[in-house]
Amino acid sequence: MAVSLKSQQSNLQSVMQNYKPIFIWLIIGAMLSACEMPGKPDFKTSHRVEAPILYNKTFQFMGEGNGVLIDTTSADLDSLFSVDGDNFISISTEQEFDFGDLNDALPEVSVDPSSFNSAVGEIELGSFSSGGDNLGTATFEELTGFNSVDYLEGTTLPGSGGQTPPHNIDIGDNADYFVSAVIKSGALEITITNDLGFDIDVIYLDLKSGTTPVNPIATTINNVAHGTTASGTISFDNFDNGDILEDINLDVSLEWSEHETKADPNELIVESAEGVDLFASEVEAVIESQDFATNSVTAIDDSEFIFEDPSHYLEVESGDLQIDEIINNIDVTIEKMVISFPRIRVAPFGEGDSLVVEYKVSESTEIERNGIAPARQIDLSGYRIFANNNQIEYNILAQTENTQTGSGAEARVINESDQVSSSVSINNLIIGEALGRLVPQTVLLSDDDPNNGIDELDLFNENEVELSEIDGLGDLSNQLEGIEFTAALLSLNYTTTIGVPTMVYGAFLGVNGKGESVYLTGINGSEHVVSSQISGLKNNGVEIPKEDLLKFEIDPSSNSGSIVFDSTNTNVKDFMNNLPSEIRFIGKAVVNEGDDVGTVSNPIEIEPKMSVSLPLAFRTTEEATFTDTTEQDLGDFPSTENGDNRRITEGIITVNYDNGLPLNVALKIDFMDSQFNSFETLDMDNLEAAGIDENGFVNAPAMNRTLAISLNEQQLNQLYKTRYLQISAGLLSTDSDGSGFGNEVKVRTTDFLRLTLNTDFTIESEVN
Amino acid sequence: MKNQAKTDFMKKTIFSLILIFGMTATAGLAQSRYFSSQSLGMGGGGTAYVDGYQANFINPANLMLDIHRPKTTIGLANVGVNAGGTLANIAVYNKYLTTGQLIAGETRTNMLNEWFGENSANTRRLGATVSVSPFGISHRRSNQAFSLASRVRVTEDMTVNKGMAELATYGLDADRFSEPTPINFSSNTVAFAEISVGYARHIMNLPDLLFAKDIKLYGGIAPKYLYGVYAADVAFNSTLQMTRGDGSSPFTIDHQFNYNIKTIGELSRQLQAYEVAYNLDNDAVLEDYVNYGGDDIGEAQATGFGVDLGATLEMDVSSLPVPLFFNANKTLRVSMSITDLGSLSYDQSASSVFADGEFSYQGAQDEDSFNDFFDNLSDSLQNDVYGRFTSEEIDAVEYNLPSMYNFGASLEMGKLLVALDYGVGFNNEGINSKRSVLTLGSQYRVLGFIPIRVGTKLGGNASAAYSAGIGLDFSFLELSVGAATVANSIKNGSSTGVAWSGLVVRF
């Protein structure tokens, strides 16, 4: 048994020894084959995504910031809406028109140049000597024929027994101020002092020019006591005009009675010779200062502006008054010359405010003898010209130098016809303001592009048209159809500087986002109807018929005004229901069409602001359609058609809402490809409208309504093609009376829409 | 005769057990025991046969082992990667996710139940360790041995619960999440290096015992210096509940959460900076502050000390009548070791970030705009919900080494080596597990220098695994590789591992 066991053990050992490597490899193979290896992933998942999007989110119809359907702070809308005290909303916007200035209506006036000549005129002679010494004397013996030694003081002098023989005294040599003169009128006063030692009863003076007596009868001076001075006046009445007084001398004779001498005998003295109103037409003399004056007139053109009253004026904005060179052909210097324009005045425009131009020594502007003063130019800005009857007067006053004093003291030869001369003109006159009668003017209310004709304006010439773009309305007109706004209003508020009645003739053309246009015109019988054709107003080169034009008057009585175009005087309802995104205007203004007196100022301006008011009071006679197409690339949306390994098998959006808007909304979404072809349409249930009161305002919101938007797998699988979404909302204003038509409703800012949105999507993904 | 019969019976029994273990035993691989290409190929043990400088990391006493090799060993660039866990359930994966099924309805329910179990709170785990030993040297003398070895380990350990898997597979489904459902995950990442100095000596000879002759007892110890590089702990716990609501109550998503992040260095500073910024300005964006670029990796974030120690009983059992190896010399080694005793304190800018909040979402309300809300929803969650946290500086992020108790036995019979190992972790750090692990492996040297290795493991943090290895193993040079994966991950998940011996030179 033991042998057998040992034998078996030996056999086994032998077998196992022989097959040991096989056993080992079998063990290894078995172990390795049992190893677990992960396979290639291949499965599909189905995820559900349920999530609330909105919970009780209330959107007020209009307001600022978030939580509103219309954010009035957004760029396009920030000035489009206005709200009254009841939160009633109007689309309102104010756009400025730029008419530029109407300065073409300002009168253009010209002033004729005017020359003046101012002659010195007759020359007055005064003192004939400078007064440093007497003019001449005669002794006792020369006048009495007695020996003076015999008639010393206290001696009795016998009477003359009549007029003594004349004794000549040559006063010309000592009259240093006088050489000669052509006397026209006046007299010469001779002053004599008696120092003969006795009293004289009569002194006879006979003035002679050379040897020619001035008068046929001598001039007498009576009762001239010893030691006194007396004067006698010698008239030139008998001196013919044109006679020359020169080389003057006196024949002197006396007459006295017997009496005791008062003093030792001495001389009779000629103290002076003074002109008394003594005028000459020409002199050679050393003369005192002479004054002379003249005046002149210049005329203003009256073709555009007429001064009918002394109070009428032109106020100069710019321009100048020119005084040409003043030529002085007088042999004396004009020490002072004043040219005054009493009707050209600076503020405050009183008589004392007139324009005065001076030439004077103190300013070294005197006019030298036989010399020329340079031309002067005076800026007239701010001056008013009161040119009654279109005439401007001016005065010249001159004063010559006194040749008896100063360095030029010498005898001059002056003729009364010697003169100063110059001319006056007003140039470059721009009127700042004018009061008077303005001749009627027609001016364009925009720039004139000469390429389409002078004085012709075209609505579609962008250089000429006044274009007002109303942000926001363009989008509405593109997107909204079928709503009739019932209370549209358009007004033109203006400020103006014009002071005369002005009628504006123009064309207002409203163009909506689709290019549809409507003219704003007056309705029959209104003051805005244009009754006669206005030439030069065109639409694409075609004259606009008067029926498409509109007129309105600018009231000159106030600096501002407003012209309201409503449904009583215009077709503004049609005009505004076209929802114009732009309003084009061209026009002409006829200034002072009635040829009235008035005031115009530079610049003549009319600054209009067009105010659009489109109250959100509307009705839908049929379902209005709001359509908006937005770019929406859903190319990443999973779809098995697109080779994606994910797909959305189901999608449900649940909407719970309160509708506080007076609108029933039927929503439709068209999914469109890149060629705008709709490949899927999603019609949704209506959002029920709120109820309204008798005024059209919401009083009964539709509360706690629910609708579901469901997309099946087939629809969801197509969405990847989407490049555009067209959202169409059929809007029907509240039909409160069940007529089938929408009533007029009014929207307030506080009208609202409350939404709760929940989504439920199932997404299937394939992994392999 | 009777004794002979007993001896024969014992031999058969042992042989049968070896075969049984070799053929059927399964063991989890993902235990945090050091693995070389040899030990990985033999199932992941090695307590009683890994020698040379690698003995530092599994049983320093083995420095004294003389397995017909020269006395000095130098190793370069030993690399091992090991990953696995209950989350890596290849069986369930293959069953449901490789067959083209739609994961919905009952199929989804069954898959998740098989993967995670019935309860939504159940968690599954996935861990990975990369171990690199750049350099090591050992020298054995007659009575003592010395060694010096370095090693770098990076370990990631994460868990997720069933609730999170449900969220991933159901989506936001109000039917599924009608009740509060836990949604949790955690992550632990640690990286550190160590320099180990080993010493072993021949402690005693024991008298012959039964069939054992020349019994020797070796003891060894390998203290090591630890150098921490990076550490981060994330724990996120939450519940999700969805209520559809009705006309009077809203559709609501309720999400209660709390989380805690412990980290160090640059990331810690960035998180704290974000918190400061957020407190000043609620519009602060997390990503503006937290953009960890790893610039501080390599800097010393922690230092510490650890130790590995062990003992090996070696005996000559050539008298055992092992089939196929009746005439071969047989050496039995029985070993015990305790590895990775020690801890690290990551104390450079350590912080703890935590939040405890509730996010209740009923839809857009007062956001800047309707569209903006959805565009920014994820940002809002990131910044305003999860991003609203509190951070505080802490002394350190503590990390305990994945300590283990190891017991092993190996029987060398000529060209065949069979081994049995038992191990249990002291903690669950990294891929460590308190769940016991049993490994069985064998190696046969074809032509004496081509080692063919197979093994299996049962227990640990994954399902049973098979392993194999091959290479060249001359007495003066070794180049070998090993790999492992599970046979069936249905119960405890899968794991996988690869190891390369690097260049081992002996002289």
Q: Could you give a short account of the major beta sheet of chain A? A: 13 strands, antiparallel
Alpha-carbon Rg of chain A, integer: 58 Å
Low-confidence stretches of chain B: 1-30, 367-371
Shape of chain A: rod-shaped
- β-strand amount of chain B: over 45%
SSE ordering of chain B: HHEHEHEEHEEEEHHEEEHHEEEEEEEEEE
Compute the number of strand runs of chain A.
54
- Structural class call of chain B reads alpha+beta
Beta content of chain A comes to over 45%
Main sheet summary of chain B: 19 strands, antiparallel
Give the mean pLDDT of chain A: 85
List low-pLDDT spans of chain A.
none
Measured by residues with Cβ under 8 Å of the partner chain's Cβ, the largest interface is: A-B, 50 and 59 residues
Distance from first to last alpha carbon of chain B = 47 Å
Q: Helix proportion of residues of chain B, in percent?
A: 10-25%
First-residue to last-residue Cα separation of chain A:
67 Å
Shape of chain B: elongated
SS elements, strand count of chain B = 21
Q: From the helix content, strand content and strand pairing of chain A, which structural class follows?
A: mainly beta
Q: What helical percentage do the residues of chain A reach?
A: under 10%
Task: Provide a brief overview of the structure.
The complex is a heterodimer of chains A (768) and B (507). With 768 residues, chain A is mainly β.
